[in-house]
Amino acid sequence: MNKVGITETVLRDAQQSLIATRMERKEFEDILETMDNAGYHSIECWGGATFDSCLRYLDEDPWERLRFIRKKCKKTKLQMLLRGQNILGYHHYSDTTVRAFVRDSIKNGIDIIRIFDALNDFTNIKVAVETCIEAGGHAQGTICYTTSPIHTLEAFVELGKELEAMGCHSICVKDMAGIMSPQVAYDLITELKKNVNIPIVLHTHCTTGLAQMTYVKAVEAGVDVIDTAISALSGGTSQPSTESTVYALEEMGYATGVDFKLLKKINDHFTPVKEKFIADGKLNPKVLGTNIDALSYQIPGGMLSNLIAQLTAQNALERLDEVLAETPNVRKDLGYPPLVTPMSQMVGVQAVMNVLFGRYNYISKEVKAYLRGEYGKAPGEINEELREKALNGQKPIQGRYADTIKNEMTKAVERLGAYARDEESVLSYVLFPQITEEYFEKAEEAKMLKVTYTIREAE
Predict the structure, then answer these.
(1) End-to-end CA distance of the chain
(2) Does 47 have pLDDT greater than 60?
(3) Which residue of 16, 173, 186, 236 pairs with 21 in a disulfide if CB–CB is 3.0 to 4.6 A?
(4) Residue 409 in contact with residue 430, Cβ under 8 Å?
């Protein structure tokens, strides 16, 4: 019987997609041991927006949150999402910081690190992959899936070969907008399985209503692992239901290793959590529906929410359709970047500015940095007129931008003073300076600690 592993996303992507990552530790801590016994391939519980949200909204130390989950989950692999050279932030960091963050993630309990770059520029994940392997972690290299004239089946297979050659232990095809069709899934997984010898994982969202059909065809093509969410926080902009997916696969003759009875207990725990978030307005029922527009505009659910928020703030929500129509034009001008963090935010903001103020009359600082080369190599050809206007005489970066970034951690130690109690604290500050400082100021015990941290320089 063929085996299909199940990665449970309720603690990370599911709650990030539906409730903007507002789930507190107290809302899941009592169910962790049951989740650990459920037979999952892995539990995605960290990374993405969880780190930022813990500090900014939940008054939690993200490192302590991870250590707590690890203490409760002794059997199941813990998984996180890492934005390559961006780590968990929105711009590139030095190699020293990337290495330290990856090492400490594994030291504090992470087993699998899913590492991606928004442009599929793998020079931006190389350091994270190497460090993960050196630290004894499972490096899962990632292909960000999108469609465009340059994103062909052959191009994706070549990316898969690159990830295997880099030493990755597995490959994830990340369909962040839920736009992969069942037939494309079958064809792409089939070709990847022919051309690489490491496991293939598929990640998608229910945004367009395709996800469960897409998973079935991917399984038929031989995919090794798929991402699902316990049903209380599944569907809409989240992943397909774990229970229904496991049930269907078992009926089809595939083994998942998941205990269906324990899934019932897990869902019973999260159902009142969901109801609470609906009651307090953090879970808008609209995100639980199907948004077929994503097939045309390739806009992930989180990006759509951001566009609506931006237009609402400008009293211009009636222009949403114009912004949706402008988004593919901006994407083309920028060389068809996949719409995943941070590119989705950059493209969305620029589309809003183009509609409200005229095309490229205002260019965001992030888009200027992208056009200068700070985020890596664009997948396709960039509109050169736009680049010249944005750079205004500046020269594009030659080579890898991260090579020009100085170690941020030494200055962070000086700035934090007594709050620099360990390397994890310093890393939190480097990624999110203001909110980390505010968090430490709230934590009375931190004020009593002395500086005991010594920088570990890059090897």
Answers:
(1) 46
(2) yes
(3) 16
(4) yes
Cα-based distances in Å from 146 to 216, 227, 422: 20, 18, 40
- The overall average pLDDT reported for the chain is 92
Rounded Cα distance, 88 and 147, in Å: 25
Task: Please give the full DSSP string across 18-44, using - where no structure is assigned.
Answer: HHTT---GGGTGGGHHHHHTTT-SEEE
Q: Please report which helix (H) or strand (E) contains residue 115, including its range.
A: strand 112-115
**Concatenated DSSP letters of 243-275:** HHHHHHHHHTT-B----HHHHHHHHHHHHHHHH
Would the pTM of this model clear 0.90, i.e. be above it? yes
Place of tokens 């993200």: 62
More confident call, 316 vs 166: 166
Q: How far apart are CA 142 and CA 101, in angstroms?
A: 18
**Do 45 and 113 form a contact (C-beta atoms < 8 A)?**
no
Give the residue-averaged pLDDT of 283-307. 79
Instruction: In whole angstroms, give the CA distance from residue 168 to residue 102.
Output: 15
Asked if residue 304 has pLDDT above 80, the reply is: no
